[in-house]
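Severity: low
Component: inverse-folding endpoint
Summary: output formatting inconsistent between runs
Steps to reproduce: submit the following structure tokens with default settings.
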């Protein structure tokens, strides 16, 4: 047992999907996995283990933002030996040629979170995803005919009042805003684990366009299939 996860060692698979919303974790477990058990209910941050096409996989809610995901992934890697972590979430596009419903594979994550500055002092560490996971996800997304973009995302420490820097970030090639990937990539490296973030564009920060809940569900399902097929080749 760790502080925020009341599973036994061995209850959690080496490969895990990480939605922010614990009810999304439940949805994935119920709709995509077989032989499912729920291993965590602490704080209602649900975690499940099951099989996908005969292979063992877990899915764990992380909550929103750098501090919350940092707690869960630290415990997953340190206490339960998790080795492959794929965030499955949403983001807000900030480029004209990125559209709602597109899928973004985060190659890297810039951030205004202070967490890495505390860790690295004056250095600008570049949180980077795992190339093998990135490549296999890209190939799976293309195979499924999805509109997929690969690049730098911005892990924002605030959801509101972050708009001031958007123009600058867009100018320097950032594709979209989200709130967790820089921590995921950095902390996974510390534990010698592989990490990737697969994000569907839920809204467009420049145009204000947003997806309906039905569209979000469809693109979410497509993203989960990409993540599962890429994680368990
Ligand atoms: N900002 C941060 N995270 C997000 C956004 C956003 O605009 N949209 C979806 N996740």
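Observed output (run 2 of 3):
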């Amino acid at each position: 047992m760790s502080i925020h996860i009341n599973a036994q060692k061995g209850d959690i698979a080496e490969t895990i999907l990480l939605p922010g919303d614990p009810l999304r974790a439940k949805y994935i477990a119920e709709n995509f996995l077989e032989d499912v058990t729920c291993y965590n209910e602490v704080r209602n941050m649900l975690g499940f283990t099951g099989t996908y096409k005969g292979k063992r996989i877990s899915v764990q809610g992380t909550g929103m933002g750098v501090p919350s995901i940092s707690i869960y992934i630290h415990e997953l890697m340190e206490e339960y030996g998790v080795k492959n972590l794929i965030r499955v979430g949403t983001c807000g596009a900030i480029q004209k040629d990125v559209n709602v419903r597109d899928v973004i594979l985060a190659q890297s994550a810039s951030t205004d979170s202070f967490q890495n500055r505390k860790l690295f002092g004056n250095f600008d560490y570049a949180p980077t995803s795992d190339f093998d996971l990135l490549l296999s996800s890209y190939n799976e997304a293309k195979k499924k005919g999805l509109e997929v973009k690969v690049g730098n995302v911005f892990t924002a420490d605030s959801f509101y009042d972050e708009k001031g820097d958007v123009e600058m970030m867009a100018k320097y090639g950032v594709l979209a805003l989200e709130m967790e990937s820089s921590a995921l990539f950095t902390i996974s490296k510390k534990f010698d684990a592989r990490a990737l973030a697969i994000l569907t564009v839920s809204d467009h920060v420049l145009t204000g366009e947003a997806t309906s809940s039905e569209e979000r569900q469809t693109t979410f399902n497509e993203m989960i299939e990409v993540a599962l097929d890429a994680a368990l080749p």
